[in-house]
Write a structure and sequence with these properties.
Largest sheet: none
Strand content: under 5%
Number of strands: 0
Number of helices: 8
Radius of gyration: 22 Å
Order of helices and strands: HHHHHHHH
Shape: extended
Helix content: over 70%
Oligomer: single chain
């Protein structure tokens, strides 16, 4: 807990160094690092943000205005991330609890998306739109199977596994 201000200062220092580097040399290889760092900063400073729809609109205007200027590489990630986070986390836009909220296919989608696309390409699907249309349902199917047969059962056993590991190490330390 006592290291939080230090971690925040280090993140801000790193963000500043990245901003200077982007302005000096261009955004070439630093774009992904910038987005990652922005995500870390958004998470660290999430308690400071007030989720207002006017913020999303203003950030979208900034993103469009800055897109082709020297400030674009710095302002575009901030504006896009801010607008998306505002829209995603605004209380008035919350979705009602549905079937989708009880099942988490996100990891399976991440895990199987690329292999499914590569398999489809190997089978001759090369047109991007057709690849997308074919890959999405196949990937979601793989993700659903993964969730129901592997991930959810493993998560149900997580507490028992933690207890077993804790008992193992406490027994081991008593014998030493």
């Amino acid at each position: 807990m006592r290291h939080r201000p230090l971690a925040g200062a280090a993140l801000l220092l790193l963000a500043s160094a990245l901003a200077v580097k982007v302005l000096w040399t261009g955004a070439q290889y630093y774009t992904l690092a910038g987005y990652f760092l922005l995500g870390v900063l958004c998470y660290r400073l999430r308690h400071l943000w007030r989720w207002r729809l006017v913020h999303a609109a203003l950030l979208a205007v900034i993103a469009v205005a800055a897109a082709r200027t020297w400030a674009g590489p710095l302002l575009l990630p901030v504006a896009i991330a801010g607008a998306i986070l505002t829209l995603a986390l605004h209380p008035a836009l919350r979705m009602p609890m549905t079937w989708w909220h009880r099942h988490d296919y996100s990891y399976g989608t991440y895990l199987y998306g690329f292999p499914v696309q590569q398999a489809l390409i190997a089978c001759g699907v090369r047109e991007p739109l057709l690849l997308f249309i074919c890959a999405v349902p196949l990937t979601l199917g793989c993700a659903a199977v993964s969730w129901h047969l592997v991930e959810r059962p493993a998560l149900a056993r997580k507490a028992a596994a933690g207890d077993w590991i804790a008992a193992w190490f406490s027994r081991d330390s008593r014998g030493a």
